[in-house]
Amino acid sequence: MTLQQAYDKIEAAGNPKDFFGPVANKDELQDLFREFSLRFHPDRTQDKTEKELRTKFFQILTEMYFVGKEQLDNGSYLNPAPKSSAPTVTPTATYDVSDLEKLKPRLIFTKNGKEYKIYEQIYENAITKIFVGLCGKEKIQLNVARESKYNDYIMNEYEVLKKLSHFSIPVPLAILNINDELEDDDKLAFVMTAHRGDTIDEIMKKKPYGIDQRHVTWILERLFENIGYLHSKCVIHGNLRPDNIVINKDNHGVGLTGFEFCVDEANKPGARYKIMNKFYSAPEINKTIRTTPDTDIYSIGQIAILLLGGNVQTGELPASVNTNLQRFLRSLIGDHKTRPNDAWKLWDEIRHLRKDVMKVPTFEKFDY
Fold it and tell me: I need a labelling partner for 221 at 20 to 30 A (CA). Which of 9, 110, 179, 289 fits?
């Protein structure tokens, strides 16, 4: 099987069995995973075009492998459930204000004395659909529950955002029920301000081998500042992943989204996590343990490894990464009993590492 044939097959596969074939146990699955990994690993070529295809294949292969292991554990490998009808969809288009003004709005409504025009859907996940819109000359977003049974998540996000006030966090503008031509059910929705920039997920599609470590240090600095603020308000984000972090390359801003699963009043005994994100949620997380700040710290560490072109499954980092930075990041993804939990202290540490140890300039142009 050639690389292209393997890639075409795994792209078309609806589940691990479609690609790996029937297996009796996890050992057989692991043997097949290793065989494909060794044969088509990105490091086994220096050709740029081939390396990109190998990287795409390896990423899908790894995801298939972990899904297959879970299916073998729960007995569904040979008879998997159909693929979800609500997969995570990354934004397909970036709209400027001038672009939107040329389009016909799908919905126009007035709330709190302001007129909102809603245009195209740009994102969705299992809970929410997000549409881009305008309020005057300002770009906004409309977050709509996928189904009415998810209204509580929308209300949770809206209520938490209302009590927060930070430049990295969207401002909620209005809440409403959607039961018109935009959607066909009585679903809760709210309007909020929109971040400017690209998600880390979008950036990594353009830079699949990672970005310069000097830029990763200032992104970390901003993230610790943002999460430090959240934690000071007793809020655990709980959903930090590449598609929920927006980078503005022009002003080095870092914005947060994806608050539908955040945990408010996380210091109270009954506070519990609401989601588990493979690779980005701390491994000890489940829906029964109490919430702690260090789980957001773990997510930041994993995201930094991704940004540097490392392996989020193993924690492996490129040898070119500064040894002090490597040591710092490994502490973020360590065992939860020793993992740091003070984001502000980590903010101070990364500032020192960036300025005094790595000698990174205060502001350096970021292009990707």
Answer: 289
Q: Give just the sign of the alpha carbon dihedral 55, 61, 64, 70.
A: negative
The residues pairing with 130 across neighbouring beta strands, listed in sequence order, are: 123, 143
pLDDT in tens, 144-195: 998 888 999 999 999 999 999 999 999 999 998 876 545 556 789 999 999 9
Token pair 């295809």 is found at 53
**Owner of token pair 């709210």:** 190
Dihedral of alpha carbons 72, 78, 79, 82, sign: positive
The two counts, helices (H) then strands (E), for the chain are 11, 9
pLDDT the model gives residue 185: 60
Residues 244-279: tens digit of each pLDDT: 999 998 888 999 999 999 999 999 988 999 888 989
Complete domains list, the chain, with CATH: 3-74 (1.10.287.110), 97-193 (3.30.200.20), 198-357 (1.10.510.10)
**How many alpha carbons lie under 13 Å from residue 11 in its C-beta half-sphere?**
10
| Mean pLDDT within 36-44 | 83
